[in-house]
Design brief:
Length: 451
Amino acid sequence: METIMIVEDNRDMSNILSNFLKDEGYETIQLEEGRSAIEKVKSNIPDLVLLDIRLPGMSGMEILKKMKDLNEDLAVIMLTAYGDIRGAVKAMKLGAFDYITKPFDIEELMLTIKRALHTRYLSREVATLRKKLGEREPGQIVGQSKALKHALSQVHLVAPTNMTVIIQGESGTGKELIARLIHQESVRKDKPFIAIDCGAIPDTLLESELFGHERGAFTGAVGAREGIFEQADGGTLFLDETTNLSSSAQMKFLRVLEEKKLQHVGGKKTMDIDVRIIIATNISLAEAVRRGEFREDLFHRMNEFHIDLPPLRDREGDIPLLAEYFLKEGNREFNKNVEGISSEAMAILEDHSWSGNVRELKNVIKRAGLLCDKKFILPQHLSIIRAGSEKAVLMETKKDSSFDEIVENMETELIRKTLEKTGGNKTRAASILKMNRKTFYRKLKKLGLLD
């Protein structure tokens, strides 16, 4: 049975919480001040702490810091009647799992408690596996904004199910990262996670890639080959740019989803298949259906659960957190020791519109960290487009930037703007720019613009 510590100086509030949690099957410990709570944590008693931010003697923030110093894995949910964003940011930086404002909805609080305990369990399990296998730390989802929290709450809700998920968001918002998180929190986590970009594979080969083929099915098919569906059997298949599927591929895809059976291209034998499908799209599939670019029956079959990822410009307060995270990542990668980002540089980052979203920010920070020859990143180390400018005014990385560097910056921005106009549709963007689709994808990969 899990134990929840309640650190709250309002006895009535503490008793209400304790009685409710006991009814839900938890053990509780009730304390009214911080020193006793810290002593309890030293004994490793609680699995989770509900901590009031305003307490006599020692503030909740001080208690939180001391608790996390004692036990970094401890899940702490802050309770406060003073819901200001600065307090929330500080609590998150100190390691709080979440931040609930009084008066709170008891069902919302219970959902947060269950998520915190589940996350703690998963982190312990992953840490144990890493010690055994020496795994690298996976990509992290960084941020505390309301928009991101809402998306993550949907991830935690749908992950344990087998529902097909459509993840919609602009290029660079982290759709594959979210898909991997869904897989990691599902019962399929020990099975394969296979990702495929339907737009990066020629139409003539796409059906073979998805469904496999038999020997002689087409010119060049010198032997039988299993497809992506078979490789992902028992696990999760992540499909990006699904609107690039041909009508024939869409029809076969629908049949696999409905019948859970698969047939190789050029084959007659059917085989059972058990795969969870996660779809990523830069555009509205419903709109693609209206334009006649996507089968309506396939859309309704896939649209079991929908997650909208917010663009970076809508994630209030997340840019500083992400920038610091990417700076630390860059320091490790380039063996640098840049201490931080100056207030002037941070102001530029927060004022930028970030059409390339998190990926663009990551590239800007890593490039700035590599160029930085000071303790802190300064405005001259940044290479981005000024927000609000009618013309694309480039902030050069160096005064002596080469012609090739300047052209690459301009080319990157032109492609970004074209992708914005097409709603992220790479095929249409390539057509507008009069580029061969294969060449366009190579260019996207080179410039770091490919999901």
